[in-house]
């Protein structure tokens, strides 16, 4: 025998209490952990980041400072949007950057 069934109002109070506990014990979001999880997921999935070009590679091509390349990229394409922390250029972005640095030489 399990006892008498609980009245509906008691079930509602128990449900509210459980929801309050769940909210109280939620962990705060950790942005760096979320970025790591995103990067790890891309790595495991075998993303196409390997064929992307970095500002460091472009800077070596033109014997220029990486900061100048990144300054051009921010001016041309805007700032990186979170959670991105590194530039990974596609072919079109790399060509526009190359043409700019070739024209300034």
Keywords for this entry:
single chain, 105 residues, 62% helix, 0% strand, rod-shaped
Layout of helices and strands, plus pairs?
Blueprint: H1 8-24, H2 31-45, H3 55-62, H4 66-77, H5 91-103
Helix pairs in contact: 3-4
Tally the beta strands: 0
Secondary-structure element pattern, one letter each: HHHHH
**Number of DSSP helical runs:** 5
Major sheet description: none
Using only CA atoms, what is the Rg? 26 Å
Structural class: mainly alpha
Q: Beta-sheet strand percentage?
A: under 5%
Low confidence ranges:
none
Backbone shape: rod-shaped
Task: Give the termini distance in whole angstroms.
Answer: 89 Å
Description:
With about 100 residues, the protein is mainly α. The protein has a domain at about 30-105. Helix content is about 60%, strand content about 0%. The chain is built from 5 helices and no strands. The protein has helices at about 10-25, 30-45, 55-60, 65-75, 90-105. The termini are far apart. The model has no long low-confidence stretch (mean pLDDT about 75).
Short description:
With 105 residues, the chain is mostly helical. Helix content is 62%, strand content 0%.
């Amino acid at each position: 025998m399990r006892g008498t069934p609980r009245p509906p109002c008691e079930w509602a109070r128990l449900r509210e209490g459980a929801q309050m506990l769940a909210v109280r014990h939620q962990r705060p979001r950790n942005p760096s952990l979320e970025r790591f999880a995103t990067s790890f997921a891309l790595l495991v999935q075998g993303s196409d980041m390997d064929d992307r070009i970095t500002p460091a590679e472009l800077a070596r091509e033109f014997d220029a400072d990486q900061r100048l390349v990144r300054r051009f990229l921010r001016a041309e394409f805007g700032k990186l949007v979170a959670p991105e922390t590194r530039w990974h250029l596609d072919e079109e972005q790399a060509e526009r950057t190359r043409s700019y640095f070739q024209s300034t030489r």
